[in-house]
Each structure stands twice: as structure tokens, then as C-alpha cells.
Design a protein that fits this description.
The protein is mainly alpha-helical. The protein folds into 5 domains: about 10-125, no CATH class; about 130-200, no CATH class; about 205-280, no CATH class; about 280-355, no CATH class; about 360-415. The protein is built from 11 helices and 4 strands, in the order ββββααααααααααα. Strands 1-2-3-4 form a 4-stranded antiparallel beta sheet, with helices on one face. A hairpin with a 2-residue loop joins β3 and β4. About 15% of the residues are buried.
Length: about 425
């Protein structure tokens, strides 16, 4: 084939990229000229040309597959670069007919893409390392925070979670990774030692609590049959305070000791409740009696005859005192109602005495008379000041008049209480 792609003399088969000569030699066209890629001595020359074209198609397929794997990231950049070099070497010496220069150009372009993917991988690894360092630092800080706490219940489980997460994270550069691991390990070891010491102390405290609670149970069982209700109730309450202050005993004996303690308390307080029920019945009868006396006392109101009311109230008060105690929740109310009657009768007696006091009446009359004279004098003073044009004097006189008139109204009301 000539440079213009026209088949040269002697060619028996040809296409755009190569030809088969009359002697069976197969040529491929390249930018540098024709290159012999093989020989075809059997069958038709067109079949030979097609055979070498299929070889080119195979190379083309390999290049396309590599391009796809690089584009998808399925192949690591270094492996892709090695594969591209191998393919390029195959293309350069390929016994194939086709656009070998085009494949070479595609492989060169793929090198740029591979380098771009390599940079992206570096950036991803750097970002992953940065994220890993940030997370490992956070894990270390949380571990150190747990180690400085007294969270003995959940801390150990959290340390296990943090350790498992640490194992899943990418490693950092050795100095950074080792430094963070040393801090995490130190925090975990310190926490475990402190927790072990704490558990040992708890075990010691629970043994002491067991001994203390056994003593408490023994005392409660001795008091269970006592009928000295007041002191024994106080003693039982004291035992409960001691029980709470003793702390928890070992789990296997705590429930057993508590059951015995509660049984002793229940026996005592059930007996006391029965006695209290009898007492409450008596208090209820006393309450009913006092309520009946209250009805009679409140019937004295309003007081019309103070002397008769006072005499009747004294009789009721004597009977009131003879009745025993009433339930505590009712005591304040019935006492309040009786005091209200007593105060009303006492006020009526005092008012009757005050009304019959001639000396107090004379004082009230004198006060009214003096205030009326003072008002007349101030009225004249105000009129004189107005006639003289002395506004200041007139104002002072009128202000004094207002005060005296208020006092007079009050004094007149007091005098009226004496029937005058």
C-alpha cells in the first residue's frame, strides 16, 4: 500500500490499516511506514487480513477493559500503570493489523488518568489517616476521662468497645500510633487497677454490712414481742436507720436478712396496730361526745344575754374537760370551734361591761364636745383668713378641719355604742 493508502502493486488483500502481499506477507501501516507483522500462506488472503485484524481487536478490548477498571477504581493505580506498560509493549510489537498508534495514544492518555487516580488515592489515604488520627485521639481522650472517673459499672464495657473500635481503624505512622496507643493502654490499665481495688473495697464493706445487719436482725427479733409501744417503736425506727446506714451485704445474704428483719418489724407493728385500733375506737367515741357539746355551745351564738351565756358555757366547759382525748386529726378543728364560742361569749361580756361603765361614757362625751369646739374655732379661723386674703392660713385651717371632722365622726360612733 502506498503512503496515500492506495494498495501497491502485488497486493491481493488490503484495508485501511494493512495489506497482504502476493507472496503472503502481512503488513500493518504505522506513522513510520509499513511493518511486517506476519505471513499468511493458507486460505484466502482476505481471511489472513481478518485474522490479524482480530488480533488487533483483542488488544483493543484489553485497552478498553483497562480504561474501565481505571475509571471505576477497581484496579489500584500501580497495578494499572504496570498493566498499561505491558499493553503498550505488546502494541508496539503486536502482530496485528489495526490502529496501533491510536491504541498507543489511548494508553498514554490512560497514564495521565492513572496518575490522577494515584493522587486521589494519596489524598484519600491522607484523609483516612487524618480521620483515623482524629478518632484515635478522641478514643484516647474518652479513655482518659473514664479512667479519671468512678464509673465502675459501665466503664469496663466502654473500654472494651473502644478497644474493638481501635482495632478496626487504619494505622498511623509508627511514632503517632505508638504514642496514642501508649496513652490509651495507660488509661485502660489504670482504670482496671482502680476498679479492682474498688471492688475489693466493696467486698470488704459488704462483709462489714453483713455483720452489722445480722446484729440488727437479732435485736429486731428480740423486740418483736415487746408491748412497750413507744420506746420499742423508736427502737425499731433506729434499727431501720442503722440498716440503711450499714450499706448492702453480699447479694446471697442480703435478701435473707431483709426478710427476717421485715418479719420482726411486721410482728411488732401488727400487735401495736391492734392496740391502736382499740384506742382509736375510744377516741372516736370521745370525738362524738365533744361534737355534741359543741352543738350546744354554738347554739349560744349570737349572744343575747351575756351573763346567761357565760354561765351556760362554764357548764359545757366542765363537761368538755371530763371527756378524754380525741383523734389527732380532729383535735385542732373542734378546739378551734370551742375557742370561737368562748371568744364570742367573752367579747359579749366585755362589751356589756364597757357599755355599763359611766366613766367611759363621760370620757366619750367630753371628747365629742372638745372636738366640736375645736371644729368651730378652726372654721372661724378659716373664714378670717379667707377674708384677709391669706390663702396659706386658710389652707392650714381647712386641713386641720378635715382631720378634726374625721376624729369627731369616730368619737361620735364610740359614744353611740353607749346608747347616746
Amino acid at each position: 500500500m502506498s503512503e496515500a493508502g492506495i494498495p501497491s502493486s502485488g497486493s491481493v488483500a488490503f484495508n485501511e490499516w494493512g495489506r497482504v502481499s502476493a507472496d503472503g506477507t502481512v503488513y500493518v501501516r504505522t506513522p513510520d511506514g509499513e511493518r511486517v507483522v506476519g505471513s499468511w500462506q493458507t486460505d484466502a488472503p482476505e481471511d489472513g487480513l481478518a485474522f490479524f485484524a482480530r488480533r488487533f481487536a483483542d488488544l483493543q478490548t484489553q485497552v478498553s477493559l483497562l480504561e474501565q477498571r481505571v475509571a471505576s477504581g477497581a484496579t489500584a493505580p500501580d497495578a494499572a500503570a504496570a498493566a498499561a506498560r505491558r499493553l503498550d509493549e505488546q502494541v508496539a510489537s503486536a502482530a496485528a493489523v489495526g490502529d496501533l498508534q491510536g491504541l498507543h495514544a489511548r494508553l498514554e492518555a490512560l497514564g495521565s488518568t492513572i496518575e490522577q487516580r494515584r493522587e486521589e488515592r494519596r489524598a484519600e489515604r491522607a484523609a483516612a489517616a487524618q480521620a483515623s488520627q482524629a478518632r484515635k485521639t478522641a478514643i484516647v481522650e474518652e479513655a482518659e476521662q473514664i479512667a479519671s472517673s468512678t464509673d465502675w459499672r459501665t466503664g469496663v464495657g466502654r473500654f472494651a468497645e473502644l478497644l474493638e473500635e481501635w482495632k478496626q481503624l487504619p494505622r498511623l505512622d509508627r511514632p503517632s500510633d505508638d504514642a496514642l496507643w501508649h496513652r490509651f493502654s495507660a488509661a485502660r490499665t489504670g482504670y482496671m487497677r482502680a476498679r479492682k481495688a474498688h471492688l475489693a473495697e466493696v467486698a470488704e464493706q459488704r462483709e462489714a454490712a453483713r455483720q452489722a445487719k445480722e446484729q440488727i436482725v437479732a435485736e429486731a427479733e428480740r423486740l418483736a414481742t415487746s408491748s412497750d409501744w413507744g420506746p420499742t417503736s423508736a427502737a425499731m425506727r433506729e434499727l431501720m436507720s442503722r440498716w440503711k446506714a450499714a450499706g448492702r451485704a453480699p447479694r446471697q445474704v442480703e435478701d435473707e436478712l431483709w426478710a427476717r428483719f421485715r418479719a420482726a418489724q411486721d410482728a411488732f407493728f401488727t400487735a401495736r396496730q391492734q392496740v391502736n385500733a382499740q384506742r382509736d375506737a375510744e377516741l372516736g367515741r370521745n370525738l362524738q361526745a365533744k361534737q355534741e357539746l359543741l352543738v350546744q355551745a354554738e347554739a349560744l351564738l349570737p349572744v343575747r344575754d351575756p351573763k346567761a351565756a357565760r354561765s351556760a358555757l362554764r357548764g359545757l366547759q366542765e363537761r368538755w374537760g371530763e371527756v378524754g382525748r380525741v383523734p389527732r386529726e380532729s383535735m385542732r378543728e373542734i378546739d378551734r370551734r370551742m375557742r370561737a364560742v368562748e371568744e364570742a361569749v367573752g367579747a359579749a361580756v366585755d362589751d356589756a361591761w364597757r357599755r355599763s361603765n359611766p366613766e367611759a361614757r363621760r370620757r366619750a362625751e367630753s371628747t365629742v364636745s372638745q372636738l366640736r369646739e375645736s371644729i368651730d374655732s378652726l372654721q372661724r379661723r378659716a373664714e378670717s383668713a379667707a377674708a384677709a386674703g391669706d390663702e396659706r392660713a386658710r389652707g392650714e385651717a381647712e386641713e386641720a378641719l378635715r382631720a378634726r371632722r374625721e376624729w369627731l365622726a369616730q368619737a361620735e360612733r364610740t359614744l353611740a355604742e353607749f346608747g347616746g
